[in-house]
Amino acid sequence: MADSSTRPAGAPPTIRDVAEMAGVATSTVSRALSNPGRVNRVTRERIEQAAAALNYVPSSQARGLSSGRTNAIALLVPDVTNPFYFDIIRGTQNQLKAAGYTQLLVDTEESAEMEADTLRKMQRTADGFILAASRLTDAQLAEAASAHAIVTINRSSSNAPTVMIDTPGAIVQAIDHLSSLGHSSICYVGGPASSWSNAKRWKTFEDESRERGLAISRVGPFAPKTTSGAAAADAVARTGATACIVFNDLLAIGMLQRLRERGIRVPEDMSIVGCDDIFGADFCNPPLTTIASPIEQAGRVAVSMLLTQLDPLHAATSRRLAVMPTHLTVRGSTGPAPK
């Protein structure tokens, strides 16, 4: 690491400090932070980590004046109060800061119309957009991708690079887990009707459950909030299922509260699996079995894919798909099927 005694106390770190910490030339640091596609991945990540550790922010004024860019990236999320998005926000923020960009955060309130309107209004404010769990239709997303540099998270698209969190893969793990505990009747508790990932999870749930000869049911759609948990719990109770897989942890936590009020014991009478492993999922009563994934890393990868797309020398060869692994974290909300 650079010797801090070589610059005045309190002075901001320089590109030379980053270069010394990363063990590269200053010109390599400049390329990695301004045109990431021109530097190999291992070196680029080492430089980005050094820049983040030093809180180094490159001067973007000259670059912006010469290129016409704003050096700002907009991150659009459906609900900023949902803890699932906290790690995405942190991951994108840290990665953008290391590259000298400002993050603009927009809550689109689960509305495709607001999302599309935001893209139109911010086209001169941001150099590119990261859409987390986009609610846009395929046609809307295709139109947006033709006009802007876009990367999506958890929203498949043939028109924009995508970071996919492999929740369907962990849905299979959850089904096998519940089946191994003797559950033969399982319910899927659906999230928003406009959610692409909700449709994908249901399709996987339906196909894999039928292949295993399980009786299945579906309730919803429900807003992905704890306040929707009471209605969801009541709906599941009417199905006669002994276990359920829930769209997200917030909804599952709300269900736990309602089932306790009704005297339905978890997991003795009903097992519950959530999704996202948000902060607090392990503090529930009982602690929530849930699907976990590297959410913050998904945000970092999305930024890298977007910055490469913004580099005209490498936009055509930039990565189009990144898949983040998931796994089932088993806690106290699942147990043997009732006799």
In short:
With 339 residues, this protein is of the alpha/beta class. It is built from 12 helices and 12 strands.
Task: Count all strands and give the number.
Answer: 12
Helix percentage:
40-55%
Order of helices and strands: HHHHEHEHEHEEHEHEHEHEEHEE
Number of helices: 12
CATH superfamily of the largest domain: Response regulator
CATH architecture of the largest domain: 3-Layer(aba) Sandwich
Distance between the termini: 63 Å
**Strand portion, in percent?**
15-25%
Q: What's the CATH C level of the largest domain?
A: Alpha Beta
What would the average pLDDT be, to the nearest integer? 89
Q: Low-confidence parts, pLDDT < 50 over ≥5 residues?
A: 1-5, 61-66
What are the defining features of this structure?
339 residues, alpha/beta, 434 Repressor (Amino-terminal Domain), Rossmann fold, 3 domains, six-stranded parallel sheet, six-stranded mixed sheet, 12 helices, 12 strands, elongated
Description:
The chain is an alpha/beta fold and 339 residues long. The chain has three domains: 4-58, Orthogonal Bundle (434 Repressor (Amino-terminal Domain)), CATH 1.10.260; 67-165 and 294-324, Response regulator (Rossmann fold), CATH 3.40.50.2300; 167-293, Response regulator (Rossmann fold, 3-Layer(aba) Sandwich), CATH 3.40.50.2300. Helix content is 42%, strand content 16%. A six-stranded parallel sheet has the order 2-1-3-4-5-11, sandwiched between helices. Strands 7-6-8-9-10-12 form a six-stranded mixed sheet, with helices on both faces. β3, α7 (138-147) and β4 (150-153) form a beta-alpha-beta unit. It starts with 14 loop residues before the first helix and ends in a 10-residue tail after the last strand. Residues 13-67 form the HTH lacI-type domain. It holds the Pfam family Peripla_BP_3. Keywords: DNA-binding, Transcription, Transcription regulation. One of its GO terms (molecular function) is DNA-binding transcription factor activity. InterPro entries: HTH_LacI (IPR000843), LacI/GalR-like_sensor (IPR046335), Lambda_DNA-bd_dom_sf (IPR010982), Peripla_BP_I (IPR028082).
